[in-house]
Specification:
With 251 residues, this protein is mainly α. It has 13 helices and no strands. The chain has two domains: 108 residues, Orthogonal Bundle (Endonuclease Iii, domain 2); 110 residues, Hypothetical protein, domain 2 (Endonuclease III, domain 1, Orthogonal Bundle). α1 crosses α12, α2 crosses α3 and α10 packs across α12. The protein is globular and about 55 Å long. The protein starts with 8 loop residues before the first helix and ends in an 18-residue tail after the last helix. It binds iron/sulfur cluster. Iron/sulfur cluster binds next to α10 and α13.
Length: 251
């Protein structure tokens, strides 16, 4: 038995960060030049690719929608037309405008003032807005408002499920999401607080990178930077009935 086999699930996840960082290098996330663009991107990329979101961002820039005041005053019809490339525009346009209204009405349009709220209250505030789910709220918190919160997504969920880091495996619902967040917080708990934002930032970007390269709906484990972890721990956790879970290739 080597040293890695003594690692807890949280320690393995932390080690995965290092393996991915070594394999892929710095990711320089989030794409977006300003916090305004980061927040827009967090909405626009929901249920679509970043490439599609970028087209909508380019349309908004060309139309002069470059700050929250302009976002607040542009008509819903115009906004829908501008963000059409990223899909779900009838839902995303009102959601973007609701965010802009909240920021202007309650925080004088200042992201700094919004960001000065405590993390828990701020997360609740974001989640109370239309079109803001857990992943969007946490992406805004981390990447635009510089709060120390992990972002979980489908790629991380798949990795955690396929490597059997949580039992039961995290589902695609709120409790599944929160279990991924808690595991990630535990994984980085021993890192200095001052590095936590940077580490959460990179870890999310790196899991997206490995997800796109290897861990999609069908995993392609050969050559994956996390393949060694998988083989070391394969089937180590058993279900309560004693059956080894064979769920790695089901999605
Ligand atoms: S592709 Fe295979 S080794 Fe890579 S993260 Fe997914 S399950 Fe793990």
């Amino acid at each position: 038995m080597n040293a890695q086999q003594h690692m807890s699930p949280a320690e393995r996840l932390r080690h995965m960060h290092d393996l991915l960082a070594k394999a892929y290098g710095p990711q320089h996330w989030w794409p977006g030049d300003t916090p305004f663009e980061v927040i827009l991107g967090a909405f626009l990329t929901q249920n679509t690719s970043w490439k599609a979101a970028e087209k909508s961002l380019a349309n908004l820039k060309a139309a002069g929608v470059v700050n929250f005041e302009r976002l607040r005053t542009v008509s819903v019809a115009d906004l829908q037309s501008l963000i059409r490339p990223s899909g779900f525009f009838t839902r995303k346009a009102p959601a973007l405008k609701a965010f802009a209204h909240m920021l202007v009405a309650e925080f004088c349009g200042s992201l700094d003032t919004l960001a000065s709220m405590g993390t828990r209250a701020l997360r609740q505030k974001l989640l109370s807005l239309p079109g803001v789910g857990l992943e969007t709220a946490d992406a805004i918190l981390l990447y635009a408002l510089q709060h120390s919160v992990p972002v979980a997504d489908e790629y991380l969920r798949r990795i955690v499920e396929r490597h059997e880091l949580l039992f039961p495996a995290p589902r695609r619902n709120r409790s599944g999401y929160e279990s991924l967040v808690q595991l990630t917080q535990k994984a980085f708990a021993a890192d200095p607080e001052c590095r936590r934002i940077e580490l959460y930032n990179e870890f999310h970007a790196l899991t997206v990178a490995v997800g796109k390269a290897h861990c999609g709906r069908m995993p392609d484990c050969s050559g994956c930077p996390l393949a060694h972890d998988l083989s070391e721990y394969s089937g180590e956790n058993s279900t309560p009935t004693g059956h080894r879970r064979q769920s790695r290739s089901v999605r």
